Request: fold
Amino acid sequence: MKIVRFIVDDDAKIAWHDDDFKEFFGEISEKAKFCYQMIHKTNSPPKNCPVFGNVDFEITFESKKNQYLAMEITDFKLGDKRYYLHEAYELDSYWHKLIEKFFGEKIKHEIIGGYLIVKDGKIIAYNGNLNLIFDELKKLSEEKIIEIEYGKTLKLEINGRYLNLIAFPTVFGDLSIIFVYDEGGTKFFEERIKEIENYLDVVRNSEAIGVIVYQNDKIVYANRGAEKLTGYTREDLASKPYWEFAHESIRDVVKERGKRRQRGEKVEPYLYEIPFYTKSGEIRWGKFWFNSIIYKGKPAGIAIFFDITKEKRFEMELKEREKLFRKIFDSSPIGQYIVQDGKLVLVNKVFCKITGYDEKDLIGKRALDLVHPEDREKVRENAISMLKGERTEPYEYRAITKDGKVKWILETVVPIDFDGKKATLGNFMDITERKLAEESLRKLNDLIMFLNRILRHDLTNIFSAISVSTSEYRDSGEERYLDLIDKATTRGLDIINSIRSVERSIGEGRLKSVKLRDVLQKLKESYEEINISFEGDIDIAVYADDAIDSIFHNLVSNSIKHGNAKNVIIKVQKLNDECLISVSDDGIGIRDEIKCRIFDEGFSFGSSAGSGFGLYIVRKTVERYGGKIEVEDNKPRGVTFKIYLKVAKNG
Reply:
C-alpha cells in the first residue's frame, strides 16, 4: 500500500514531506511552495479542499503520475500554530483498506470475487482477486456495460463463470464501487446486503425518527417518521421546498445551508435544535442532524430528526423559572448568596453592599472567610443543623466586611440544586443597627435598675438620716443636727438632679444626628462663672440624643465644683468616621490612683464629693451612643476628658 505523507501549516505552506512526495507531486520551489500550487495546480485553495476549502469529506485528485489518490487529514497544534498531516493513499489500496474494514478478511482471502472502482463508467482501480477476468471486465467497461443502477444487481457470464455485480456510490460523487462475486460468494454478500436492507427498513418504518432526503429544492424521500412527526404525507412533503416546514426564524438558514451542502461545501455545525411547523400549524421542536450524501447517483442533503418538544418546553420553563429566580434574587431587599463546596458561586447586590466586596471578589471565595473567626465554628454547626432540618430559627453571628468592620448578621440557609449540583441558598440580613439598639436598650434597662437602687437605697438612707437628725435636734436643740439635715438634703437634691439627667438620657432611646455647635453654645450660655472656649470643627454632627447635654454639663460642673477651674477648652477633631471631643480644664486635676475609678457606679471622693453617679451616668450615656470616654492629665495643670462619638452621615 503506497502512502505519501506531508504536513501543511495554517498558512497553506508545505512544512514537511517524506521521500515519496517528489515522485508524486514534484519539487518544492519558491514559485510552488503552497499546497494548492503543488497538489491542485491552482493559485488558491480549491473548494474541495477539506482544510481551506470548507468541505468535510475526503477528496480525490490526479497526481503527477495521473493516478487517483485518497487523502486522510489529521490536524494538530505545535505552540500557537496549527498543522495538518496529509496521508495520500493510492486509490485502489485505500478502497481495499475500507472494504476490508466493512467486509472483513473474506473479500481478501476467499475466491468469491472482488471490487472495481469506476469513474464515468471506466475502471480506474480493482483488487487482485479480479486479475483472471480483468481483461473481460475492462472490455465491458469500455463498452460502458458496467454502468448499473445503484443498489441493483447485474448478472454476467465471463469465461464460463456466473458473476453478480452490485454498485454503490462513494463519498466522492463521481466515483462508484462495484462488488463482483460469483455464485460461491452470493450467500456472503446477500447476508451483508440483507443487514443493510434490514437497517434501512428500520429507518424507513420508524415513527420516532424522521428522515428526509432533498435534492435541489425538493424533498425526494421521506420516511414514515417524517410523516408522523410533521403531520404531512410523503406526497405533501414531496410537493414542498425542503425548508418550508422550518420555523421562519431559521428558515433562511436551513435553505442556504442545504444548498451549500448539495454543492459539497463543509457546513458546520451538523446538529441543531430548531423549531418546525406541523401540518396543523403547531410549532414543535426537533433535534436535527444535517449532512451531505449521494442519492441515486446525485448529490443530495439529508436531515435526520426526532421530536424534543417536551424536553425543550421543560428546558424553556426551567430557564423562565431560573430567570424569575434570578430577578427575585437580584432584587431581594436582603442579602442572598449560593454556596457550593464551601465557596460562593452567586451573590446579589445587597450581599455585596453588606460585605463591602465587589461580586467578582466574592465569587470563588470561601463563605466562612467572611465570618468572624470567633463565630465560625458556631456558624458551621448552626448551618448544618438547619440544612438537616433540625433547626428552624435563624441564627446570628458577626461578619467581617472588606474594610475590617464588624457587622451583625441574621441568617437562614436552605438546601437547593444549582446547575445540577447540590448547593446552599443563604439569606443574609444586616442586623447591626438592631443589635446596637438592643445593646442600647439593655444599657437603659441597667440604668433604670440602677436608678431603682438609688431610690430604694440611697434616698431611703438620706431620709432616714434626716428623720434621725430632726428627732435629735428636737431633743437637744444642737445646731450640728441642722448641718446634718442640710447636708443630707443637699445630697438628696444631687441624686434627684442626677435622676433628672438620666430621665433625659432615656428619652426616645433612638439616636439621631446632633450638631455639636448647638450643644456647646447652649452649654456656654449656662455657665457665666467660668470661661468656656472652643477649638476645631464644632459644626460636626454626631449620633446622640437629648441626653448629650448632660455629658458636658456634668463635666463642666465637676470642673467648677471639684476642680476649682476658671477655664474650660473644648476641642473637636474628626477622625475618619469618629469624632474626638476633648474637654480640658485648668483646675486641680484628678489624682492618678483614682483615675481608674471615677466612672464607677457611686464612686465619690473628697470633701466636695457628690452622689458618685455623675461621671457614671456620663460613661453610660457615651457608651449608649456607641462611643467611649477616657481621662488624662492636662498640661500644665487640670484634667482632660476625651470623648469619642460616631460622626453622623450628614456630619
Summary: Residues 432-476 form the longest helix (45 residues). Residues 240 and 279 are 12 Å apart (CA to CA). Residues 55-59, 105-112 have pLDDT under 50 and may be disordered. The two ends are 91 Å apart (CA to CA).
